[in-house]
Structure formats: structure tokens, C-alpha cells
Write a structure and sequence with these properties.
Number of strands: 4
Shape: elongated
Structural class: mainly alpha
Strand content: 5-15%
Helix content: 55-70%
Largest sheet: 2 strands, parallel
Order of helices and strands: HEHEHHEEHH
Distance between the termini: 85 Å
């Protein structure tokens, strides 16, 4: 197995394993790709339950920003000096994870909409600047209009 792991990842994996408690019962390996972290965890930590989830980075970005996810998360937050989500509540959070191909398409669509929104905001900003400039020259009499 050691030869399969790229040399530069070895220190990172060992540091990561140090962060995982030796008596961990459940572990989710998000973005598991080749499954190296999951494989090493099975060898060195032996969790009772290990789930590998391949999540497209842009999909999770949009998912975490979604109103439904935000409302779901905030419904579990404990009102304390340091607001947090308890373990029992965290286990109740459901995240829909479609196929990697579908995640990619969803993220692509949402990204295209973000680009259109940004373009429209830029256009609106330019129109507002034009309006200010026109107001300045028209309302001060610098430019006269024919009636």
C-alpha cells in the first residue's frame, strides 16, 4: 500500500490520522477519490462504520449555501455562549448526494446563473453611474435639452 501513496501525501495522511480518535465509531470520508484516507483509517483506526462519499467541490459549495441546508442547520444550533450543533442533532442532518456526474451538472448550472447575476449586477451598476452623470449635467444646466 505504501507505494500507492504519493510521497508528498504521506506526512499529511499521518497528521490526519493523528486527528482521528483511536476509538472512533463512525467516520465519513468526504471526497474520497482514490480512497487512500479511508484505507489508511481502516488499517490504523478500525472504525465500526466508514462511509466514503465522493462530493464535487462546487456542489458542496452550493449545497452549504442553500436556504434549505442553512435552515436545517440553524434549527439544530444550541443557544449557548458558543453556539454549536450537538452530536445527536448532527446525526439527524440529512444531505442529499446525487451521483458525481449529476453533482457536476448541478454545480455547472448554478455557476452559470451566478455568472449571469454578476453580469447583470455590473450592468446595473454601469446604468446607475450613467444616471448619476446625466443627472449632474442635466439638473445643473450644463447640458440643455431641446423641448
Amino acid at each position: 500500500m505504501g507505494s500507492e501513496v504519493a510521497t508528498w501525501t504521506r506526512p499529511f495522511l499521518h497528521e490526519l490520522l493523528e486527528e482521528i480518535p483511536k476509538d472512533v465509531e463512525s467516520l465519513i470520508d468526504v471526497g474520497c477519490g482514490r480512497g487512500i484516507v479511508g484505507a489508511m483509517t481502516r488499517i490504523y483506526r478500525t472504525p465500526k462504520r466508514l462511509v466514503g462519499v465522493d462530493i464535487f467541490q462546487d456542489y458542496i459549495f452550493y449545497l452549504l449555501q442553500s436556504e434549505k441546508f442553512q435552515n436545517n442547520m440553524f434549527s439544530f444550533i444550541n443557544e449557548a455562549a458558543q453556539p454549536n450543533v450537538g452530536k445527536s442533532d448532527f446525526e439527524k442532518i440529512y444531505i442529499s448526494v446525487p451521483s458525481y456526474k449529476e453533482q457536476n451538472k448541478i454545480a455547472e448550472i448554478l455557476n452559470e446563473v451566478d455568472i449571469k447575476i454578476e453580469n447583470e449586477q455590473n450592468y446595473r451598476s454601469e446604468l446607475n453611474q450613467l444616471k448619476k452623470s446625466l443627472s449632474q449635467v442635466l439638473l445643473t444646466g450644463q447640458v440643455r435639452v431641446k423641448v
